[in-house]
Structures
1.
Amino acid sequence: MTSRRSSVSWVALVALALAGCGGGVDDAAGGAGGGPGGGGGEPNGEPTFYADVLPILQRSCLHCHSEGRIGGFSLATYEQARAQAGIIAAVTADGRMPPWHAVDTDVCQPQRPWLDDARLSDAEKATLRAWADTDAPEGDPADGPGDYQLPPTGLADPDLELEPANPSIVEGDVDQFTCVVYDPGLDADVFVEALNFEAGNAKVAHHALVFRVDRADAEALSGGDERFECFGAPGPDLIHAWAPGQTALELPPTVGMPLSPDQVIVVQMHYHPTGTSAEQDTSKIQLRFAAAEPEWEFTIALPGNASSAPQLLAGPNDGAEPEFTIPAGAEDHVERMVFEVPQLPADLPVLVVGTHMHYVGVDARFWIERPNPDVGEPAEECLVHTPAWDFNWQRGYQFDASIDDLPKLSGGDLLRLECHYDNSLKNPFVVQALEDQGLSAPQVVTLGEETLDEMCLGAIGFLVPHF
């Protein structure tokens, strides 16, 4: 089997360059144009639960809204769904449910569909509204879609499950950054085709970054212990990122992430203590390995969080130099950033994209600007727009397209970010965050890792040829 080091060195360099090496480019307005998607019309006749509503619930709702799942209540039976008929119609009509925040807007229409897109069509929303408005008739069970099998919460058929020997203790009133070492104990090189991170305690787990780290480096950082304090990244090879709402990473059949016996997995956990109680967290990792060497390697970069020019662009509240500062009480503060893609030995297909902010954030957009597009490529291509940002429902969005049809990154391309913030009491997330800290008035917010700080990040998972 070819050594995993064949291409990982320049993969790491690309990831680092995208995350922190921008060019001195000017602030050009941009973003792909377009409008909202969706289609379909009003349902024909009076919809019933079994014939019309249950198929929608099974496809898009029951994986969360079943007994013991994260939704908090079940919609699996007629009686359960009928009791919530009005709420179902309301929260699906305005897009709050199912939680899917990458949407088509006037300034962003991604050119490819999303894998496992949970959004309802206009026709499905109209069906749910008509069912609620006609007193939620049951219909004939024989007209139903048949038995429903809940999907697993983690990976199907993992080859390896890892958890720490001892829990992390999360206490006090200051955010904690703890690195936890997970040792796969491999005796041969493998390629990871799927990875799932399962947070053990949702009360305190803010987010997690999953790194592939050389064993010797991890031992030097940890002193041989299972966990150690780590404000910064424990290494350059980020392979997964988790935040509330994130699902398992399932790579296409010809894509993998190399992992060798001389490496371990280190998870940087960002914990947000409750301030009132000591909590324990035992988070788990599941891995599934590819049967053969892949054609492509997958890695992740997180461009953003620029604190100064040239990556951070000038804003309306800045002084002589660009400054990432959100004034207390500001209702529509905007920060813009730009990052230049370094020169590459090959174009990089983009598989997964996402955005990340904290509680003050309300809207984020991430797009490519190509000074020298190839034939058939747009000069500007919007990757993702999350105009109703919700910290509690974050995830990466994977394109449902062949590798040949994925958007490409080329040397000299610009990655642009635009993040909007509401730092006023009109933002319920700000109100909650202030209450958690014993505060009642908005504070000046700056760039940082803590919950009451802010971020403006794009996530981009790209593919590199495996040599």
2.
Amino acid sequence: MKLLFSETRSDYGRYVYPYVIWAIPEAGETAADCYERGFLPASPELGAFYLCRNLRVNLGEFSLTSENRRILRKNPGLEGRLIPRAEFDYTPERRGAWRTFADERFGVGVMPFERLDRLMNGAVISHLLSFVETETGGEVGNALLYVEAPRVAHYYYAFYDLGWRDRSLGLWMMTWAVRHFAGLGFRHLHLGTCYSRRALYKTQFRGTEFFNGNCWGTNIEELKFLLAREEQSPSDRHLLDNPAYLAWFYEEELARLVERSEFRLTPAPHPRGGAAIEE
């Protein structure tokens, strides 16, 4: 894959020069190659991916905890079905219900019809999970997914009947999906980003990993450190220039993090010279 670095606002006085990092798949590569290196889709067409602090469950390490079992017991009368996008009926009723849900949960205008339609017509949604009542067949929720067996599945967006909130339906659906893909033998299930404490509910699964910008980590205390750091007033250091971070999680040795990095810059022939990032 090729990497592009898009410059964003700098803080010249503190020597902070930020870049947003995009990955562009090359011939022979698939979305799974980008997911595995810490990127999530930047477009429904899967033409570009952005590096971010995202979460995944290493399904080889997953097993149900007592809390997971408690959540699953809350909705014994429901079942899920994995449906290829080509076989899913994207009806006006579903489209309207999803937009109404998004307005209430994400904010008005965050998920307009145009964005929903682009998602549903893009390669980023390959499958959907449909959750129904076993007795009546009535649908109570849907989850939009990218699935590339057996390497990766991405639990992208979920929409459900808000009347079921007191039964933790949203978390039930996610827990059901983690268990389901683990049972199918998948390597990883991605659960989106984690940039606020509100997203920590996604870390309740055994096998949870997060991408810290350099490598996948399993120490949730490191993740909480990163979240707390964002809640504080701006620091005079960027993360890898923060002695406390390196001391607490890498024994004061940057080399420990270097060894685990997903990326390496190596000389490579180019028409205009330069170097290449080796994944």
3.
Amino acid sequence: MNLPKLKIGNLEAKFPIIQGGMGIGISMSKLASAVANEGGIGIISGAQTGYRENDFKTNNNNANINGIKKEIRLAKELSPNGIIGINFLQASYNYIELVKTAVEEKIDLIISGAGLPKTLPEYVKGTNTKIAPIVSSGRAAKLLAKLWKKKYDYLPDLIVVEGPRAGGHLGFSREDLESNNVKNLKELVVEVLEAIKPFEEKYNQKIPVVAAGGIYTGQEIKEFIDLGAAGVQMATRFVATNECDAHINFKTAYINATEKDIQLIKSPVGLPGRVITNTLTKQIEANSLKIKGCYKCLKGCNPVVAPFCITEALIKAVKGDIVNGLIFIGSNGYKINKIISVKELFNELINEYFE
């Protein structure tokens, strides 16, 4: 027996698993291509992709453009028959230029969150690149589908529904998350499925819905498939793999983390983020950090009042400084206890699916 395939227009992944984009630098060409080679969809992080370029500090935009080109080309070289995507934060300062670069490089899929990507169809019409917004409510899915159809005669090729248990930036208020005043992922998936059904029926177009945030086992994948989702997006599970692009210290931070070590912080753009507690998070909570320079990476970040520089914090982490770096993690990350290969992880998830 096999898992159902994930179909996105003319794209067809052998398994209904998208590896979530993780930045800065956690999911690059090495991890994305490994996932694609196993039959999933591999996602490159589009957040400060050029952080290893020589001109990253002096010409940040140029470095990121070159970084995107290099990572997409390398991923395609490593996985010539796989499906490769990239994830962009809509809140990125040079969002449009980043998107255009990925499209020019013939990326298969663009997933976009951290705000509604209202103009995204403008940059892919007439190309083979598929686009998928990340939403956290049926209302957002309906609003975007209606807007895209009216303005661009375009419906989402895929919708990613991200729930409250995800890692990284979250589409909910910190207050609601801490008081558990949010719908769970299953409720959100059903809500989005109901919201887009009229569009599918009216325009005779299937819009696959993928569940994301806190999904850990193959059994959970099956539960969401049975619920009506076309697949799942998993990020945290792919960190502790041999092929993950992060430093070994980053991976071992996941292995050593306990449930109590996972907390919420306030990001410089005002969104809550789920991270592993360390010296940096304590400094953030104490508001004792100051920003010395600015990369202009996120539109909503004002370096004068921002609690810390998220670019510097994420780069420290991906390079192995797990004391002073920011380590994003999903709510179930503490369950990880060893580093395995991407192939082993797929086998584990597939076996669990049929248990």
